[in-house]
Each structure stands twice: as structure tokens, then as C-alpha cells.
Write a structure and sequence with these properties.
This protein has 396 residues and is mainly beta. The chain has a single domain (38-390), classed as Methylamine Dehydrogenase, Chain H (7 Propeller), CATH 2.130.10. Helices cover 0% and strands 44% of the residues. It is globular, with a radius of gyration of 21 Å. The relative contact order is 0.16. This is Pyrroloquinoline-quinone binding quinoprotein.
Length: 396
């Protein structure tokens, strides 16, 4: 389950000296040397001292590392990829669930766009964007995309030219990144297996690419197809009570693999099963999915609801204040209710004790659970990885 509303990245910008008017003729700093080729010679992520953090009880016995990620990372096949600014460049680092750093690659800080996706044969990829001219801080330069094996860093395809920045979800690029998601005519989607631009039917608007499945809006319908163009399902938006013209990809990411999150009007969203087009939840303002039980947690202006994997209501709770889903992990949903953080059991809805009541330090929240059991934690500034390895016993 991934969250970015309150854990979004700080501005990834290159910090430079302010040139005073009297020194305007002085040369600026030299361009940063960037090694774009992924390398497996990666130092181990720094160990995190748990005494400085107020950790969820579910991770208080495992190793926690700091890979240097500035924003919520992305994950597939148990491998997590994130980025952080270092010495004037942007470093992407892939880390396994046990905390081992697998590979890293550098890019200009102006090229923050990346995506984790899957090819039709199930190979997990990291797709990084680039522009060599961006090394010199130039704006408006051409953009390319290159795919690497997520586990090894081996180049799979690319670089291929794209019309502009990666806007997502998935491998969606646009020359008009300021256009609302799902409305720009210049949006293209790449085939995860080859990097080629996928053709679309006349009148189709690309909404997103989800691990090899492309979702488009075609007339009044929401349509999913594979990279070969074979249609998987078609959903009549009007029959769901949605305004087809308002149907766009949600700005928040889907809360896990296998689902599509779409905005159905200015103040409401829906969650759709990627496999068959079943509407799992509708009419919410925020949502989370528990990866263990499949329970869907929705929030609207009045209530929090728990739904089972078939959509049957398990429980409801009055929110009373502005509420957002901060994360879902270990059968608990972490809710931001006003200025406080509250945890509920996802199956019963009962308020749960997620933290040691006597604990101190910066409060961290689980924001992503990998398929191999790693948990990304955030204190809204740093993003740590709670590994699958137990904390080493103290030295005698």
C-alpha cells in the first residue's frame, strides 16, 4: 500500500549559490559529472537507530535501514526503488526486502521521473528518464526513457525518445505535463516489454499503465487492454453513475498492485479490479488496501468504511474531521484524523494500539509493503526500510 499525500517528496532541485549582481560575470560551478550506468558496487544502506524513532510495534524487532530515499519509493517482486539527491545529482537505489542494496544509478536532479512496471512475461523493470543536456541545467531539452532489470540493473531497452516528462501512472509520458491527468492530447504510453510507443484507437485517452496493462477512456467506457491491444475488460462509466467526461486517473497512486484508482468527479474516486473490471469501492475521497487480507478501507467526508475483498461492508466508523489514509500494514490502517494519528483493525474496525504508549521519538508510519514483506516507513521527511531481517542481538 502506497501513500504520497503527506509523504510526498521534498523539492528535488539542485542547490546553487546565489550570484550577486556585482559578481554576475564570475563563472558558475562546473557541471556535475553523472555516471548513468547502473552499478552493483553499492554501499550497504545505513543502519537506523530505532531509539530515535517511535516505531509501529509490528517492526520493533527487525532491522531498519536508510537507503537515502527522499520520496515514497516504488516496488515490485519484493524489490524497492527510490531516489534521493546527493552532491548535486539524483541517485536511484534498488534495495531487497532483507536490506541488501542491489544497484544504483545517477541522473540529473531535473529528471526525477521514474516508474516500476512489469513486462508481459513478468519481468520487473525500473524505467528511468534522462536528458544529457540537463547536466548543464538547461530547460526544455529532449527527454528519453531507459528500462533496467529491477533486480540486477541490467539494461533491457532504450534509451527511447519520449515527448516529455513521465506523468504516470506507469509508463505514461506527456509533452503537456500541466494538463489534468487523462485530458492531454499529447500523452503516450510505452510498451513495458519493448519501450515502443503503443498505438491507441481514435478517440481513446490514455489514463495509465499498470504493470503491463493499459487503461484508457473510450467514449463512455473505461477500457483495459494488454500491450498487444487485446481488450481485457470494458466498464460503462455512465452505468456506474459516473460522469464519463470527468473520468481521469487519480493523482494519488493506486493503493497496491492489481487495482486501478480513478477520479469519477471533482470530489469522488473509485477503485477497480485490474483483472476483470469489478468496481471494488466507489464514492470515496481516500482509500487503502491491506495486502494481507485484501480488505479495502475507504474514507469519505463523514465515514471510514472497511470492505472485504468481495466488496461487502465489514464495519463503519464516523470520522467527524478531515481524515486521510496514511498507510495500511499488518492488518492495521493508519488514519490521519485532524491533527492526530489513529490505527484501526482492518477486519473489525476496532481502534488498535499500534505504538508503544510510552515510546518517544519521531513518529513513523508504514506507507508501503513490498511483496516480500519489507515495509517502507516515513516520518514525512525520511523514508526508511523495515527489512525482513531480525534485529541482531546485543553484543555480550
Amino acid at each position: 500500500m502506497t501513500r504520497t499525500r503527506r509523504t510526498g517528496p521534498p523539492a528535488l532541485v539542485l542547490t546553487g549559490a546565489l550570484l550577486l549582481a556585482g559578481c554576475a560575470d564570475q563563472p558558475g560551478p562546473p557541471p556535475v559529472e553523472i555516471d548513468r550506468t547502473p552499478t552493483s558496487a553499492v554501499g550497504a544502506p545505513a543502519e537506523v537507530d530505532p531509539d530515535g524513532l517511535r516505531l509501529p510495534l509490528q517492526v520493533d524487532t527487525v532491522r531498519i535501514v536508510d537507503p537515502g530515499w527522499d520520496a515514497v519509493p516504488q516496488s515490485a517482486d519484493g524489490i524497492t526503488l527510490g531516489a534521493g539527491e546527493r552532491d548535486g545529482l539524483l541517485r536511484f537505489t534498488a534495495v531487497a526486502a532483507d536490506g541488501e542494496a542491489l544497484w544504483s544509478a545517477d541522473r540529473p536532479v531535473s529528471r526525477t521521473g521514474y516508474a516500476v512496471t512489469t513486462t508481459p512475461d513478468g519481468r520487473a523493470l525500473a524505467v528511468l528518464t534522462d536528458s544529457p543536456a540537463a547536466d548543464d541545467g538547461e530547460a526544455g531539452v529532449a527527454t528519453s526513457a531507459t528500462a533496467y532489470d529491477l533486480s540486477t540493473g541490467e539494461q533491457v531497452w532504450g534509451p527511447v525518445d519520449v515527448p516529455g516528462p513521465l506523468v504516470g501512472p506507469g509508463l505514461v509520458f506527456s509533452a503537456e505535463p500541466t494538463e489534468p491527468i487523462g485530458t492531454g492530447d499529447a500523452r503516450v504510453v510505452l510498451d513495458a516489454g519493448t519501450g515502443q510507443v503503443l498505438g491507441q484507437d481514435d478517440g481513446a485517452t490514455v489514463l495509465g499503465e499498470y504493470r503491463g496493462t493499459v487503461v484508457t477512456r473510450q467514449g463512455d467506457d473505461l477500457v483495459a487492454s494488454d500491450t498487444a491491444g487485446a481488450e481485457s475488460w470494458r466498464l460503462d462509466a455512465a452505468a456506474q453513475g459516473w460522469d464519463p467526461e470527468a473520468l481521469v486517473a487519480a493523482t494519488e497512486p493506486a493503493p497496491g498492485p492489481g487495482v486501478v484508482r480513478v477520479r469519477t468527479d471533482d470530489a469522488s474516486e473509485a477503485l477497480v479490479d485490474l483483472a476483470d473490471g469489478t468496481v471494488l469501492a466507489d464514492g470515496f475521497t481516500d482509500v487503502g488496501v491491506d495486502p494481507t487480507t485484501g480488505t479495502v478501507i475507504t474514507v469519505d467526508v463523514d465515514e471510514v468504511r472497511g470492505l472485504d475483498a468481495e466488496g461487502a461492508e465489514l464495519w463503519t466508523s464516523s470520522s467527524g474531521q478531515e481524515t486521510t489514509v496514511e498507510g495500511v500494514s499488518g492488518a492495521l490502517v493508519y488514519l490521519r484524523v485532524g491533527d492526530s494519528l489513529r490505527a484501526h483493525n482492518v477486519v473489525t474496525g476496532n481502534v488498535a494500539e499500534a505504538y508503544d504508549p510510552e515510546g518517544t521519538g519521531d513518529l513513523v508510519v508504514p506507507v508501503l509493503v513490498t511483496e516480500d514483506g519489507g515495509i517502507v516507513l516515513s516520518d514525512y521527511e525520511h523514508h526508511y526500510l523495515a527489512t525482513t531481517e531480525a534485529t541482531p542481538p546485543p553484543a555480550p
